Amino acid sequence: IIILGIESSCDDTSAAVIRNGVLLSSVIASQAVHEAYGGVVPELASRAHQQNIVPVVHEALKRAGVTKEQLSAIAFTRGPGLMGSLLVGVSFAKGLALALGIPLVDVNHLQGHVLAHFIKESEEDTDQPKFPFICLLVSGGNSQIIRVNAYNDMQVLGQTIDDAAGEAIDKCSKVMGLGYPGGPIIDKLARQGNPDAFTFSKPHIGGYDYSFSGLKTSFLYSLRDWLKDEPDFIEHHKTDLAASLEKTIVDILMDKLRKVVKDTGITEVAVAGGVSANNGLRNAFREHAAKYGWKIYIPKFGYTTDNAAMIAITGYYKYLDKDFCSIDKPAYSRVAL
Ligand code: ATP
Ligand code: FE
């Protein structure tokens, strides 16, 4: 079974080929055009996807050594994401599937982030989570704790009631006048700073839910006060600010996750999404594994942010369930997992 995966939900155009669950190729074209604006500009993203989609798919097939006639099915991100971006990948996938006379498999982008843990780079690659496991999904648009019962059976136990963790990092980074996206920049600065230099407010919210908007405001107001006394405050304390912000976010994420693990008794714990690239969060996972006996799963850096390999592997498992998508199904910008 050979699956072509296509991802175009935000600002990365990506295609990947998977044969019987093993990755043959993965190509990602990122869009530098948004850097100048400090965030993704939807119209520019759609236009870049239009330019990239054909060469990216072509390159993925070429690197996999597979012709389009050998494909068993095409898996594509149907949502959630930016409508104009999604439309490019969705239309392309539908057109190609129709021309080749093969099935289409629609993939929920968030399910893809979780199932990135099942991407195998070779047959020997077998260190994967066992069901049921708990997955912390932290990305640019989502922060959720998910109970994963099977490939196609997931239950959201808790989620953010306002901003996502990645969004909070990106906004605080913007306030500091750093570049976009802020996540990798904050991560790098934080490695050289003191995480206990500053304290920012943490949310008081019950259950397994998250909230990050209060932290964002606390960060903004604290900075404003400090800048009044010292105009070069950010320049002088860049690394400490980054380290303290990162620590606050990691603490918030891990506090709720620990609660879920304790209450469910499930100690297979994974992390997924763009923020799972963060070194502070990765270290916190390793510490929890050592301290509480968790069996942890941390994705390779390349599978944390958006990629089509995660879409292709999700498509593969849906294909095995014969869970196909008819051609009249539209893209969706918002949907629950
Ligand atoms: P969603 O998947 O929720 O639709 P998205 O696709 O935009 O959102 P991802 O691509 O999964 O999100 O992740 C992007 C986010 O990850 C950004 O907010 C980015 O700043 C953050 N990020 C990337 N690398 C790091 C890092 N090393 N440390 C912290 N955050 C990071
Ligand atoms: Fe994503």
From TrEMBL:
SUPFAM superfamilies: Actin-like ATPase domain. Its EC number is 2.3.1.234. The keyword Membrane does not apply. Substrate binds at residues 137-141, 170, 183, 187, 278. Gene3D superfamilies: 3.30.420.40. Residues 23-312 form the Gcp-like domain. Required for the formation of a threonylcarbamoyl group on adenosine at position 37 (t(6)A37) in tRNAs that read codons beginning with adenine. Is involved in the transfer of the threonylcarbamoyl moiety of threonylcarbamoyl-AMP (TC-AMP) to the N6 group of A37, together with TsaE and TsaB. TsaD likely plays a direct catalytic role in this reaction. Belongs to the KAE1 / TsaD family. This is tRNA N6-adenosine threonylcarbamoyltransferase. It comes from Bacteroides gallinaceum. The gene is tsaD.
